């Protein structure tokens, strides 16, 4: 399978266009009021319209309630809901079933013991995202630009595609891909010039570096060989 590259926290048309032209497979729209990347539903719908099917639209939510999800599903119709809060496996299953939507559950990792929850989430999610566990006093559950020990998730295969995030940037993404060989990479802070301000050159550099590493590692080759 080809490597998936997600650019998260897009707020403007120009940056959406940059991410699409750079070759991002997934674009993330953040619905979290405390985030510098937060967008309104109306803005998200406008941004999403620009994709014209060139990338999957991901709605990033944190412990969303059903009323909010109903609006998101009615107006935005995202390809995927990213759940980046304290959603239990039961709640993930409930959202997936109730709203008939694909879900990607984020799991915070700082130690091997954090991987214990992965099988339960894999059983009820379409994809997983492993991210740095936020510090206890962090204002945000993600988007903190913090990396974790990638060796903890190297080759992780819970039966669902797993994306890597947390402190990735154009300079370290190739190493992260080589070391983990996960299904995809997701970035927010690492392609910004300031919190919430995306940098077009960094986005292009990030996607290019990820694609070079993808070719070097041979993503897709094993899949093709397997038939
Ligand atoms: O981006 C945010 O502001 C955000 C807010 C709340 C939850 C998650 C958020 N972002 C996600 O966090 C990871 C890591 O981001 P970073 O590259 O370390 O900044 C990524 O999946 C973002 O989608």
TrEMBL record:
GO terms for molecular function: phosphoribosylanthranilate isomerase activity. Pathway: Amino-acid biosynthesis; L-tryptophan biosynthesis; L-tryptophan from chorismate: step 3/5. Its EC number is 5.3.1.24. GO terms for biological process: L-tryptophan biosynthetic process. Residues 5-208 form the N-(5'phosphoribosyl) anthranilate isomerase (PRAI) domain. It comes from the Bacteria. It catalyses: N-(5-phospho-beta-D-ribosyl)anthranilate = 1-(2-carboxyphenylamino)-1-deoxy-D-ribulose 5-phosphate. Keywords: Amino-acid biosynthesis, Aromatic amino acid biosynthesis, Isomerase, Tryptophan biosynthesis. Belongs to the TrpF family. NCBIfam families: PRK01222.1-1. HAMAP family: PRAI (MF_00135). This is N-(5'-phosphoribosyl)anthranilate isomerase. It comes from Phreatobacter aquaticus. The gene is trpF.
């Amino acid at each position: 399978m080809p490597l998936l590259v997600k650019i998260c926290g897009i707020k403007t048309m120009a940056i959406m266009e940059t991410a699409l032209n750079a070759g991002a497979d997934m674009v993330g729209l953040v619905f979290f009021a405390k985030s510098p990347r937060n967008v309104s539903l109306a803005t998200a719908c406008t941004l999403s319209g620009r994709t014209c099917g060139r990338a999957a639209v991901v709605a990033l939510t944190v412990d969303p309630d059903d009323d909010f999800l109903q609006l998101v599903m009615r107006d935005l119709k995202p390809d995927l809901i990213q759940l980046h809060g304290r959603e239990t496996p039961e709640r993930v299953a409930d959202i997936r079933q109730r709203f008939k939507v694909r879900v990607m559950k984020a799991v915070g990792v700082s130690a091997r013991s954090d991987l214990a929850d992965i099988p339960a989430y894999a059983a009820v999610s379409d994809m997983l995202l492993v991210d740095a566990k936020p510090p206890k006093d962090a204002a945000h559950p993600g988007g903190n630009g913090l990396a974790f020990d990638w060796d903890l998730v190297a080759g992780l295969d819970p039966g669902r595609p797993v994306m890597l995030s947390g402190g990735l940037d154009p300079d370290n993404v190739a190493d992260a891909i080589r070391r983990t060989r996960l299904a995809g990479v997701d970035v927010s802070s690492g392609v910004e010039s300031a919190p919430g301000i995306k940098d077009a050159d960094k986005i292009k550099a990030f996607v290019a570096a990820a694609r070079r590493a993808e070719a070097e590692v041979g993503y897709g080759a094993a899949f093709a060989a397997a038939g």
